[in-house]
Amino acid sequence: MRKQIAAANWKMNLTLQQGEQLIDELFKTSYSLNENRQVVFGTPFPYLTAINAKIAGKANVSVAAQNCSDKKSGAYTGETSVEMLKSIAIPYVILGHSERREYFNESNVQLAQKVDICFEYGLKPIFCCGESLSIREAGTQNSFVEEQLKESLFHLTTEQITGFVIAYEPIWAIGTGKTATSEQAQEMHAHIRKVLAAKYGNGVADTISILYGGSVKAANAKEIFGQPDVDGGLVGGASLIPAEFTVIINSLK
Ligand code: PEP
To answer: Which atom of ligand 1 is nearest to the CA of 128?
Structure first.
């Protein structure tokens, strides 16, 4: 079975103390994880070491950075390299979140470079894709997402893409309270898997976890995660509320 993942994206929210308290509260609640069910906390850079220490010893719980540089090292003031993340034992990096694409002009080509550096240092990308409202209204979302995947990922080898993690996040559903219907999510996830299968074969496409992101909350997680091609979620707002995130974790297949 593919890995089912509840990934929290804290974005630029919470102080370290609030983040630690959130995790303490979450650990007090009864959530259920196993080898196939994983939780990932996407925290701000300054907290990665502290949160990594806090979750030490908790099975199937990891941390993720929310970004990394597309350069390996050098005179890039304010940037954080993949090698730096590796040196503090961070296993995951969220790449290509729509907020980074929109506010920091990240392109598909630049993301391909980030993906490559992650592989070079052994970090696992959680690669985000998804269309804007105008693209959805024009009905061209499938080809738009396909292009994002092709330009950023299709140079990867079969070995690299096996077990990869993709997050489909329709921009119109992020932080808006508007969730894609479970049918819309399943339709796009099935499309993504079909595109991956056409390039890498069904066997490989079946190993790739495709998370849904966009206003996932306790009330809708079970139905969305229940879709055959949805392998969990990338969760913003609701991941900041322990009671909500516990229900979301327990809604994983
Ligand atoms: C996100 O930040 O990736 C996200 C999906 O946010 P929200 O759950 O708040 O829509």
So the answer is: 3
Closest atom of ligand 1 to CA, residue 9: 2
Q: What is the pLDDT of residues 72-123, one digit of tens each?
A: 999 999 999 999 999 999 999 999 999 999 999 999 999 999 999 999 999 9
Q: Which of 40, 93, 215 is the pocket-test mutation for ligand 1 (most atoms within 8 Å of CB)?
A: 215
Domain residue ranges of the chain, discontinuous segments joined by +? 4-250
At the topology level, CATH places domain 4-250 in TIM Barrel (3.20.20)
Q: What is the pLDDT of residues 187-223, one digit of tens each?
A: 999 999 999 999 999 999 999 999 999 999 999 999 9
The pTM score is 0.96
Give the residue whose CA is nearest to atom 7 of ligand 1: 236
Count of Cβ atoms closer than 10 Å to residue 195 Cβ: 20
Residue having the nearest C-alpha atom to atom 1 of ligand 1: 236
Residues lining ligand 1, Cβ inside 6 A: 9, 11, 169, 174-175, 213-216, 234-238
Place 1 in a pLDDT band, splitting at 50, 70 and 90: confident
